[in-house]
Amino acid sequence: MKQWLLLTALLSSLISGNVLADTVQDWIKKMSASSHRGNYQGTFVFWRDQKLEAMRVAHGSKDGDIWVSLESLNGEPRRLIHANGEVTSIFPNKELVSINEMTSGLPFHPDLPKDIKQLNKHYELSLQGQDRVANRETQIILVKPKDTYRYGFKYWLDKETGLMLRCDVVNKDKKVLEHMMFTDFEYLDSPPVSAFQKTNVPGNFKVLKQNEKHQIKAGNNWFAKQLPKGFMLTKNILKPMRKKQATVQQLVFSDGLASVSVFIDRNVSRPHNLDGHTSMGSVNAFGLMMDQHQITAIGEVPESTVKLIAESIRHRQ
Amino acid sequence: MKEESGVRISEFLDGELSDKELNSLMVDLRQAENKQQLQNFSRIGHALRGESDVYSSIDVSESVASAISQLQSEQSQSVMTEKTTSGFFASSWFKPALGAAFASVVAMLTIVVNQSVSVDGVSQGVPAVAQQQTLQPQNIELTNFARSSGTQETDMAAREELNNYLVNHSRSASGGNYQGMVPYVRAVAYEPGQTK
Predict the structure, then answer these.
(1) How far is B55 from chain A (nearest CA, A)?
(2) pTM of the predicted structure, to 2 decimals
């Protein structure tokens, strides 16, 4: 009888969601699944290029609906709210509100690739011991690239839920390029509804609306002749851009972890196009002109990768 | 650490302290409370830069105090007639003897005391190391953009263009990989707001 009770207890704990993740793949799955579940709030720091940002986050989910609020706590006030299929960015100092209707109901959250083993082809995944972040016990996961076309990642995952509480982006020289870490964190019993309300937005603020539902699937007249191994085309759309009369074509290439967007702009009358490389934190951009179009590749990958992808873009005649 | 001491360390790094103020700061640095706080700040700075914990064991306050002592000693022997402290520290900034101590504290102060390197692209009087990158919170920083255009106006326009691309990329990236809201954090950090 005791054996049955023990077995039942074990099965219950496995089914309850507090599953003990054994392998690094289990932890990656757990991380992905946890990111769009739960009610929590906290403060984290985001560091890159010698600049530190502090942000407050609130997250809620119920019956498939998800709400997220991100608020910058230093520098110019900025707030971003995702609720009811809209992403609203509020800039009080500029008296500006930007509203984007999203095509996906889960703009903040990852879609788990069907085959998680794809990651193993281009990254070495390993467990790296345990640590404490925001007063919570975490499991450290190291995601090391197998080539120089992508960055490495180090994740600190909440041992209880798998939620990412800290993330470092590391280059091939093991230099940390970007760092995000919760400094305080709290799980809640119910969604922190008040955090998602767009209160205190005066009526005189300028409102910019962009309906991403109206973005159009683009043809395959533009393509990449050569891509780093593992990168695949995941999106190809025409979308309106701020301050532009015409649409811009956006190609998105991803290896499941890193992604690069290529923007193709036919409107080249302006003399201020990016020519060459620029960077900020882990994000690199590379621009060039081709067939009277401005090509700009941008992504959280090394300079060589955005350059390779930008230079490999071709126009099908 | 008392706020006053933090401010004075910042002023020291900017070369704005008089000899008397330097002596006072040196005494303060050797006090236990300040020493501990300096160590804590240093650890935070190193942790945020992802550097090894081995640096945590370095006594930063001792390093700074020693550096100040050395500076004062050199100053008394110097044939330099320039008396202004800012000029003195500006010329002494690159002295190897100060390198380690300054590097630790500059990074610490850049991140912890000053928090933001610049606001709206205007330098806030931070040490020279931090001033190497003048950041504009509302724009992507174009580290080598000079080669692509010449005027300030076109640079600004290009920044705005890249901001748009970054925000759009972040929105796409956030829905397609494992990193959850990290791309959105980038978007909030870089959101342009120049579309008025």
Answers:
(1) 16
(2) 0.61
A270-292 confidence digits (pLDDT tens): 566 788 888 877 889 999 988 88
Express each pLDDT in B140-178 by its tens digit: 333 333 233 445 555 666 777 777 788 778 766 654 444
A189 part of a folded domain: yes
B166 and chain A in contact, CB less than 8 A? yes
Same domain as A221, residue A187: no
Q: Is residue A38 part of a domain?
A: yes
Taking 3-state DSSP, the helix, strand and coil percentages for chain A, each rounded to the nearest 5, stand at 15, 50, 35
Query: Is residue A72 located within the same domain as residue A189?
Result: yes
Amino acid at A34: S
Nearest neighbour of A280 by CB, restricted to B115, B141, B179: B141
Number of domains into which chain A is organized? 2
Query: Which ipTM was obtained for this model?
Result: 0.75
Listed by number, the residues of chain A in 158-217 with a beta carbon closer than 8 Å to a beta carbon of chain B are 164, 167-168, 170, 175-176, 179-181, 206, 208, 212
For residue A203, being part of any structural domain is answered with: no
Yes or no: say if A101 and A212 are a contact pair by the CB < 8 Å rule. Answer: yes
pLDDT number for residue A227: 94
Residues 35-64 of B with CB under 8 A from A: 48-50
Cβ separation A53–B195 shorter than 8 A: no
A65 assigned to some structural domain: yes
> Left (φ > 0), alpha (ψ -120 to 50) or beta: where does A136 sit?
beta
Domain of A272 in residue numbering reads as 215-315
